[in-house]
Amino acid sequence: SYCRSQASGKVISGEEHFSSKKCLAWFYEYAGPDEVVGPEGIEKFCEDIGVEPENIIMLVLAWKLEAESMGFFTKEEWLKGMTSLQCDCTEKLQSKFDFLRSQLNDISSFKNIYRYAFDFARDKDQRSLDIDTAKSMLALLLGRTWPLFSVFYQYLEQSKYRVMNKDQWYNVLEFSRTVHADLSNYDEDGAWPVLLDEFVEWQKVRQAS
User: DCUN1 domain location, by residue (predicted)?
Assistant: First the structure.
């Protein structure tokens, strides 16, 4: 790997200054002839950094790189993002994992990552997310922190919805942050999308039975 000094074979400390040249050479380890890291390159990259492709760290990294499409990193995205992280090799990126994870605990960063995920994951010729992709992304983002997530997931499974639009997506986060798990403070006259009104009705019927 590029982080090892040629002479001694020892791993150089992360203090060594960032090199754009090394960062570019690192990019080309994974990029195809079209100068893009595609799905196969991403798979190899994940293997090298020791992270599953569906690990949320990969979403946070993509957000940091401002990557436009899931499964792809362009040269420009890579250089700009890795420069801001000061990473030019595998070991330096691994040393940033705690920092990347910490972004999820920061309320405003998490909101930005959550909003970013919508555009990142959708097919670029569609304005909405197909419901299966939406469910996977919601599981990744809210699955561990929102007490009602599994119930909401069940609701989506049996609902008539085939896609989720941006307004619905943004509101699910707001709902998860402000509405109690027993739904006692849900305001039916609030400006919630119909999808969430219907979820609340569905859940109240279930609770009553």
Answer: 18-204
